[in-house]
TrEMBL record:
ANK repeat ranges, renumbered to this chain: 21-59, 99-132
Name the UniProt record assigns to this protein: Uncharacterized protein
Keyword Repeat: yes
Keyword Thylakoid included in the entry's annotation: no
Keyword annotations of the record: ANK repeat, Repeat
Source organism superkingdom: Eukaryota
Entries under Pfam families matching the protein: Ank_2
Native organism: Trichoderma asperellum (strain ATCC 204424 / CBS 433.97 / NBRC 101777)
Lineage: Eukaryota, Fungi, Dikarya, Ascomycota, Pezizomycotina
Amino acid sequence: MDTLKLLVESNPCAVNAQDNDGETPLHYAAHSYGRLTSTYKGAFQYLLENGVDASIQNHEGRTPFQFLCDRYDDGIPLDAATMSLLYTEREDLSHGDANGNTSLHKMASQWDRVEAVKFLLDRAADVGIKNLKGNTALHEAAIGRFIPGYVPPEKLRSEFDGMMKVLLEAGGDGAVNVKNTAGRMARETFEDLWIKKEHIPYVTEKIRILVVDLGAEVDRKARFIL
């Protein structure tokens, strides 16, 4: 922080300087968040107080906020307060990376990021957007990203329950029946990975009923109407 302050004080205009990739100091700070959480959160605040523009995009059209949402499986919580620091009203939550993954796709795949997902949904992030594989946020949540054995089953159950409930509430009952480019529904992905492979310790009966049985019932009704 001392070095950052010295640089800003010596050249205040540098806070919005962009490198060859179009990235500002805030992009770098957001990308590094999680390694030294308190330090980088302080860096966000300091840069914002000194005129940094959080809406500046790099040459790929990506903002510091999107960099913040890129982080995978580092075990560091991403809370709404931190996200609020970098979020601006000009943020395009439908913007995907090279694989078509939006910030919601990335956060949904990490079951401990329910608060982050709620933050995005509260700002009208679209659960139905598909990545290049045709996966929605529900597909990504059904797949999940974690290290087996690293997190206790009871904690995973709680996190998975929370994530699926939030996404299903936002997407509606039929959201689990949306097909990806391989023709697979989110509920089929869920069944293949967590039911048929008998990873029962990670799945509660309530969520099994909600995702599998309810999804199948919605699908049957739709076929009947057609």
